Amino acid sequence: MANVTSLGIGSGIDLESLVTAYVNAEAVPQEIRLQEKEDRLSLELSGVGSFKSSLSSFNDILEKLTDADSLNKQTVTSSSTDISVTTNGFASNGSFSIEVEQLAQGSRLQSEATAGVSPFTSASDVVGDGVLTFDAGDGVDSFDVTITGTETLSDIRDKINENEDNFGVVANIISTDAGTFLTYSSTITGAANGLTVTTSDGSLDAISTNLSEEQSAEDGILLVDGNKITQETNEYKNVIEDVTITASKVNTGSPATLSIAQDQENGSTLINEFIAGYNLMMDDLTGLAAPKQGRLAFDPNVRQVKQQMADITLQAITTAVGGIDSLSDIGLELDSDGKLKISTFTSENIPSGQERLSDALENNLSEVGELFASSGGIATQMSELIDNYIASDGVLTQRTEILTERVSDIDDEWSTLEDRLRSLEERLRSQFTFLDTTVSQYNATSTWLASSLANITPQKDN
Q: Which of 184, 312, 332, 417 could form an S-S bond across to 327 if both were Cys, CB 3.0 to 4.6 Å?
């Protein structure tokens, strides 16, 4: 605020202090009110942000469990790098002998040579005009390349490699003592997919119809426990049901041993991660809603989420396809603090929680997956509940937007208060300036009268 230090100099009254006192009397209660309002809204906004973050973190864990296949992990080992193996999680356990008798391969062709000598001397040689047609598999895969008489071997190579319809032919130029050769290698494997190159013009025969075959297209041959499988590629899907084997090296006489087993540790890890994530979320919400220190003390949204989550954990699902339809069936329960744990209770007829969990993961893994991931499963219900709060149109998202807008509005209230105080100060200064001037004039008149009266000589009586 402006400070006019000359105010009161005429009257001798401390009018500056009076202005300050009046302005402060108006300002202080309003400033305290606005600051408390801003602090309260900012605290609530911070609490809602932590609320959303906690739900989102738990939802990341739930997303794994809403995929039934996430529990169906298997350990696949091979005694040799000659093969690589993957499963979809549903393969039967077992051990198999895998022998690669022959790798599938594509054709490799080379430009014409007479008595081993190429008609080309360098990559800059030109050939002729016409169209080259590349084919593999009796027209199943084919494309054309148009060649002009001014294009060099390098130009032709680039045209082939860059052709948008190229199905997998790689052209290269090799310069040797016997001359320069144009080669074609096909990535299309299998004996029925030999590469052929034909032309519409005889001037291109040297790089098409008169090619020599340096490598023939062949099928892959795999032996599984002595059983022969022949196919066009080196990737063998479902030769062993739900298993994909990729051969990379011939190992005739030295077969690789393939072992498949259910990964129980994966399931146990996911369940324990679910328990820990649930409990961490509940701790977060309890802290946020704490009566004295919580940023969202007594908040109805927090109370509602905690209750709904507890209800989901306790109820049996209606979409179970087997005997497992509740968390209790896999040994999980809520303790007195509302936390999930693996039950320690056991009796003659009831196995412990850990025993129930281990048995379910070993013998009923698909049912455990349904318990969490089916349309009415535990993880599905919890994830849908969380989405109701944190999605773009969710309760907490809308609440955040409203709080943010209200905090922003306080800036306008501060500006309005500042304008009002400035106006008040200006009005007071105007009034006190008038008072100061008036009193100063009266003081001047008083001084003049006193001086005049003092100069009057009293007359003596005769």
A: 332
